[in-house]
Amino acid sequence: PILASAHESSCIRLWSIQGNLMKELLPFSEHPSGPLTALCTDIFTKILLAGSKKGYIIRWNMASFLEDPRNKKNEIKEALCWRAHATEVVELFIEEEKNVIVTASIDGSVRLWHAMTGYYFGYFGQARKFELSDTSRLILPSDVSNFPAIIKEESKHMEKKVKYPLMLDRDK
């Protein structure tokens, strides 16, 4: 078993049950997620989900890391990041049988998303029925304008390019 803690710095720390720090995770998607406000995993702890104060959901794949945490090759890979709400995410969980993620925000909305792609299915209280089998429709909630960003597996947090370095570049 491991414990996970989410922090205002957007960092997730994974701890052994003895209290030893095993891993620190920082999101490296294009959009800054802000302070983390909610965490959950699937039943087998292969997927870690985090919700943020800015309304983002970040999904990490943890399966290879948990098989052998001491092996440096087994990394936790950030797989997906998307804006789920315009305001703070206060709760989220994954419903594995239907392969959906349910998110709730301080704006009072509760929304459904495809667990692997981040595609929007709808919100609780809508007039139409949820169509969970159709993930080809690229729709978004009215208050969100960005589609999910799939994170390439070869990406690494250290490779993030700084747009405004603190050094003079005479060629620019």
UniProtKB/TrEMBL annotation:
UniProt xrefs under InterPro entries: Beta-prop_IP5PC_F, WD-EF-hand_domain, WD40/YVTN_repeat-like_dom_sf, WD40_repeat_dom_sf, WD40_rpt
Residue windows of the WD repeats: 82-113
Domain IP5PC-F beta-propeller per the UniProt entry, residue ranges: 27-114
Pfam families: Beta-prop_IP5PC_F
Keywords: Repeat, WD repeat
Protein name: WDR64 protein
Biological source species: Leucopsar rothschildi
Lineage summary: Eukaryota, Metazoa, Chordata, Craniata, Vertebrata
Gene label: Wdr64_1
